[in-house]
Amino acid sequence: MAQIRVLPPEVAHKIAAGEVIERPSSVVKELVENSIDAGATQVTVEIKNGGLESIRVQDNGVGIAREELELAFEPHATSKIVSAEDLFALYTLGFRGEALPSIASIAKLTLFSRPGEQKNGYKIWQEDGKCVVEPVGTPPGTTVEVLDLFYNVPARLKFLKTPSTERRHVLELGTRLALAHPHIAFKIITDGKTVLATPGNGRLLDTILVVQGNNIALELVKFQAAFAWGQVQGYLGSPRLAKGNRSGQIFIMNGRVIQNQTLRVALEKGYDGLLPSRTFPWAIIALELNPELVDCNVHPAKAEVRFAQEQIIFSDILQAVRSSLTKQNLAPTLQQKETQVVRPAPGRIKVAEQTQLTWQPETWEHMDKLLKSYRVPREEPPQNAQSTLFVQESEARFAPAPQDTQEDVRGALRNGRIIGQLHQSYILLEVPQGLWILDQHIVHERVLLEQLEESWEKSAVHVQEILPQHLDFTPGEAALVEENLNLLAEFGLELENFGNNSFILRALPSSLAHSGGNWKEEILEIATTSKKTTSKKEQALITLSCKGAVKAGEYLDEQVIRALLNALAETKNPFTCPHGRPIIVRLENQELLRRFGRI
Ligand code: ADP
Ligand code: MG
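That is the input. Now the predicted structure with magnesium ion docked in place:
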């Protein structure tokens, strides 16, 4: 066994830095938290090349006095706590005294600072492990500049993603910090371009609107409640804002953006019954509570916290979310919608779809035409179709249910008698074999998917211009969309940058052009997809066909149903939906006879 040695300090620092500093956004987080702790009302974050080349965080906080500058670079040197007990009386974001020395050990860090009352500013940096201090002209506050991150830890560099991905991480983090501190005017500049500038007027709503776009205002429910342990406030998004992942949820505890299972489950349970499965509520929830009741020292990057009264906090938040949603105008519409959609239809139905149950004549007319165009010429049904069916049925009476061939199924789809729609969600079809129940959304989804696949394979996705749709994104989302404009165009989604993190959607694949609705979530989903793998490409096509398909709760007249069934009969796989669930539920004649005690 090798000798046990104490590691030299520079090695120890690098190891410690590995825990806290994973990527450029971790540097930004530590520096901005320091600015917030310093009481800043203005914080400007500027990065170049995703932060790999440079990161600069400037604030107008209290600054660091000349005589303390060197100390700030010492490990475990902090002005924020003096004893271990203080860990449970934390009003600051930092407390470990690790960030500056850690960053300085893995990048070239220079700090400029001047407390307001000090006449001159100073800059400090390290050279060969020693601090160098020089006077410098600088405004009151602190600026930290970090160049060449991980220049001396090549192993770390290898784990970094592309500059554009790292830039997106910084934007997502910056956005969250800005939302957690509406009284601070945040500015984020990437490669010379200002991508976010919040007003810093203390109003959370104003900050949300800057981050998310003004259109969101009508979809928000203000949320506020006080409890024995503290208080909670924020905004809850209407089901229309729900997303396919949890990126729309922000939890803030005493100004700290946190991840916490208790809060997440409480929020999601609060929306129980309001959202289709596999969608997640949008919400910003800020808790203020006595720091004694929370342990912030459980995660290297301080991203998670542990509550002392977990159960109580859970049930209080759940209750508060629930009652805010019921109290608001939102509730009646939701209840109404809930009763309309008796059961959320299977398939990846998005919230927007669930709440979009109203008749849209304009859209529908197009849809109608579109569906009719699918109709393939076929022979007229026999005059006495009814009796033919009846005869077949009675012949089948005592025979075991035959195994249908694909052709039988196609034939039945084309020739079956349409009984009508059940709950405006299911198609009822009388066929010689019995009664078939088809989910209208899934039927259409399958039809659209195969069309899209076909045009994709021929590398000719036909696009059609639509009424331009103005879509607002968060800075992080906008960056993602911008990076993937070409990919999106390959899928037939033609978008144009409209500045201010917004885009105009101008065209869609022609088979989807008349389906209406807001395509924002689907655009984001596809932008995160890479068409490099077949399964991802397939996933994107499924996303599109799901969005474009008729929804549960939409009225379909007989002609349209006929067109849909004909189109389904033409598909390669009329049996299962793209997610593998059945399209047709069959009630066989045998089963009917058995149930009525006839056999
Ligand atoms: P911590 O934040 O855990 O105290 P850091 O290493 O991040 O540790 O910072 C060390 C100390 O440097 C802080 O306690 C604070 O006194 C000082 N400091 C760092 N950044 C700033 C800033 N932007 N403004 C004022 N003081 C700062
Ligand atoms: Mg700190």
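Residues 11 and 169 are 27 Å apart (CA to CA).
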